[in-house]
Design brief:
Elements (H helix, E strand, L loop, with lengths): L36 E3 L5 H8 L4 E7 L6 H15 L5 E6 L6 H7 L3 E4 L13 H8 L7 E4 L4 E3 L4 H11 L5 E7 L1 E3 L5 E4 L2 H14 L14 E4 H4 L4 E2 L4 H13 L4 E8 L1 E3 L3 H19 L13 E7 L2 E7 L5 E2 L19
Parallel strand pairs: 1-12, 2-3, 2-5, 3-4, 7-12, 8-13
Antiparallel strand pairs: 5-10, 6-13, 7-10, 8-9, 11-16, 14-15
Helix pairs in contact: 1-5, 2-3, 6-9, 8-9
């Protein structure tokens, strides 16, 4: 399939730092289609609890300044899937330097809370969603990881069993992506335009150009997903919002697109992002894609770029610089001192 099929992964050594450490990710079946979309109610509680069979499940919630919603997310997951049905073994919040009461409210709701900067401080600290998920690998005890965003407003605890269903019932599935209707609300609580602007303008065109066998992914950047720890710990992880596009591409190229499942969770409402915040997100998604194609412009830094945006004022245009982090963490198993939940040293 050539470059459009995602082959040529060996050139990634010239891309973002640490990406090549993921090893040979040549496709083993990328041409196979992504699986059809499941419905979240396909599996009963009894079926999932039986299929769990001694495996541990960790729900991980990356959060930054989400004091108004994180407590509800934690409390509803714990009530339904820790206390009522023992499907989840731990709910962990990775706090990315919040300046509000995010950590306190998450802890009060029953979560184990870790400051991202304090997890393996010897490895340094960075801002970003991917950084929080990568740091989570160093503190979770689960075999299966469920990632939920902290800004969920209109959602249900059925998200958790929905995402776990394919992983628990099909050993060939490595990664599960959420599918949902995603209206957004503005700062006044009013419904804004439908979500998914970065998906439609950046991620979907990238997939069409370079990984067309992933075109059946309805929402490749959905923030709710689940993955086997044994898979995630062997992937290079972009520190920012590139983590989702990187995960689907890397899993497909290593295990085949049919190792990715999708589950329709119904509806999910989240806070509306201002349009000027979408630029840094788009940069991070593009950078993660370029790294997987082995591209990097000569002279560009490996970890940050400068994004210039402008506002009109009565006196003219004002220049604003943003510096999105486009660095990547190496696969966790390759990091000295990393151990999985069994205590086994995973370095090879």
């Amino acid at each position: 399939m050539g470059e459009c099929g995602g082959r040529g992964r060996s050139s990634r050594a010239d891309g973002a730092a640490g990406v090549a450490a993921a090893g040979d990710l040549s496709p083993v079946g990328g041409e196979l289609p992504v699986r059809p979309v499941h419905q979240h109610g396909e599996w009963s509680e009894a079926q999932l609890l039986g299929a769990k069979a001694g495996q541990r499940v960790s729900v991980v919630i990356p959060a930054r300044d989400e004091q108004d919603s994180v407590g509800d997310v934690v409390a509803r997951v714990r009530e339904e899937w820790v206390e009522r049905h023992p499907l989840v073994d731990e709910v962990i919040v990775i706090d990315s330097d919040s300046q509000d009461a995010t950590a306190e409210r998450a802890r009060s709701a029953g979560a184990l809370v870790f400051a991202a900067a304090e997890v393996r401080p010897d490895l340094g600290a960075a801002q970003g969603k991917g950084e929080a998920l990568w740091k989570a690998l160093h503190v979770v005890t689960g075999d299966l990881l469920v990632f939920l965003d902290a800004d969920l407003l209109d959602w249900g605890p059925h998200f958790v069993p929905g995402l776990l269903g394919p992983l628990l019932t099909d050993p060939q599935v490595r990664l599960v992506k959420a599918v949902y209707d995603r209206p957004m609300v503005d700062d006044g609580g009013r419904q804004a335009e439908a979500g998914g602007r970065v998906t439609e303008l950046v991620a979907r065109p990238l997939i069409a150009l370079h990984w067309p066998y992933l075109s059946d992914l309805v929402q490749p950047l959905s923030g709710e997903w689940a993955i086997r720890r044994s898979t995630f710990e062997r992937l290079s992880v972009p520190m920012g919002y590139g983590v989702e596009i990187a995960a689907v591409v890397d899993v497909a190229e290593r295990h085949g697109a049919d190792a990715i499942a999708q589950v329709d969770l119904g509806r999910r409402t989240h806070r509306h992002h201002r349009h000027d915040t979408l630029g840094p997100m788009a940069v991070q998604v593009l950078a993660a894609a370029e790294a997987r194609l082995g591209w990097r412009s000569p002279g560009r830094r490996e970890d940050h770029v400068t994004l210039v945006q402008y506002d009109r004022t009565p006196t003219g245009f004002v220049r604003h610089e943003r510096h999105p982090n486009i660095g990547e963490r190496p696969p966790a198993w390759s990091v000295e001192g990393y151990r999985n939940e069994t205590g086994e040293d995973l370095r090879q």
